[in-house]
Amino acid sequence: VQLVESGGGLVQPGGPLRLPCAASGFYFSGSAMTWIRQAPGKELEWVSIIYSPNGPSAYGTMVKGRFIIDRDNVRNTVTLQMNSLEPEDTGVYYCVQGAGTIGPRGQGTQVTVSS
Q1: Which of 73, 93, 115, 113 is nearest to 6 (CA)?
Q2: pLDDT tens digits for 33-86?
Q3: Calpha distance 110→115 (Å, rounded)
Q4: Sheet holding 17-24, edge to edge
Q5: Which of 57, 41, 38 is nearest to 49 (CA)?
Q6: What is the pLDDT of residues 10-26, one digit of tens each?
Q7: What is the pairing mode between strands 44-50 and 57-59?
């Protein structure tokens, strides 16, 4: 299993950011995919999930209405579109194979929301 997140960076409050995750080494279209994040000094937080093969999806209360998860089963990617970002969204974002927070995950991508 290989998961590679990208798209992180520094963004101003209120701005958008798009995080793609490229997956390989497993049956992607048959697997739920999850995004989790970890803020500095805090525990892992579940962000969003999209079930196979094309949904449904669900979101944590902190991001509901601002983030959108999507998947492309041809390109084996899962994407997290983040809108109206807040400083509290700062952290390392990981995509995870399966549901929950304990499956295989990538190295993460850093998102920093600051003016």
Answers
A1: 93
A2: 999 999 999 999 999 999 999 889 999 999 999 999 999 999 999 999 999 999
A3: 16
A4: 2-5, 17-24, 77-82, 67-72
A5: 57
A6: 999 999 999 999 999 99
A7: antiparallel
Strands, E assignment, 14-90? 17-24, 33-38, 44-50, 57-59, 67-72, 77-82
Record the tokens describing residue 47, joined without a space.
Answer: 């962000």
The rounded distance, in Å, linking the Cα atoms of 23 and 4 is 7
For residue 65, which phi and psi values (nearest 5 degrees)? 90, -10
From CA 14, how far away is CA 8, in angstroms rounded? 15
